[in-house]
Amino acid sequence: MSNNMLFDVQMAIYSATVALNLSLAVAVGAVLAALWLANGTTTWSAAQLRRVRPVRIGAAAAAIAALGSLLPFVSASMAEVPVAAAGEAMGAMLAESHFGLAWTVGMGALLAAALASVIPSTGQWLRAVASVNLLVLTVALYTRSTVSHAAADGDLSVAIVADWMHLCLVCVWVGEVFVAGFVTLSGAIAETAAERAEAARYVENLSSSATFALAGIFATGLFSAWHNLGGVAGLTGDSYSIVLLYKLALVALAALLGGFNRFIVMPSLLAGWRAPDGRAAQRLRRFRLILRIEAVVLLAVLVAAAILSATPPRAAA
């Protein structure tokens, strides 16, 4: 394989990884939104559930497509052959490699997630189906950890569990920001007192879960960085360290945006819903705009994470 072709395959792997990670995150975010809205009794909650359902289906389908594309790309890269000639390598990868096993389990989990997302459901049945949906998505995320740098210590190591928790929490944060910014808070306006109360509960759930996720991301990310680099001394200016620092800067920026929304914008938004003063729509637009900016920053974080996943840290080199 020529250097140009190798570069093209590597870029394809990066792109497919970003698409997979984003799809998984949106799927998780959409399932969480469905869980939060499932007990709603107002027209507003019902409208948001109708908007979320195709997102759940589309995100699962996109994740299946992205994971499916990774198999020929990774096989071609490992065998050093063009993608069009990677058929034999794919068969060997599936039958004989750790990546093939992880890919097979992950694809099964994603197919189960897609099935759960298309089942019509409401109320408590929706909560049950969405819980199963969330469970199989965590299985798919575990398979991603088993082909990461953390897998050097085995599939049931502390490093694997920390990496898996990190991925799950990142998906919670990224997914709920995307879903809230572009779907649920872009739909019907909450007009009645009951609708405003349910919208307020949704935003409170969004904020609380994002705060919890960010705390967990910090803890698990710190452990994973220590594991991969062997300490601060591992930040030596190599490619892995540079991309890691870039990712950390983006995460810090996204956290600042989220903090601004939580502590500056959200209190006035909730107050306006509970005691209408005619400015609720303006405050909601401001809250939504910051969510969308945060989503763009988090997309850049996913790009950096995809590059990190394919870049060996100095400690592992």
Automatic annotation (TrEMBL):
Copper resistance protein D domain location: 202-308
Keyword field: Cell membrane, Membrane, Transmembrane, Transmembrane helix
Major location (coarse): membrane
Pfam families the UniProt entry points to: CopD
Subcellular location, record wording: Cell membrane
GO cellular component, one term: plasma membrane
Bilayer topology term: Multi-pass membrane protein
GO biological process, one term: copper ion transport
Annotated PANTHER family: INNER MEMBRANE PROTEIN YEBZ (PTHR34820:SF4)
Protein name: Copper resistance protein CopD
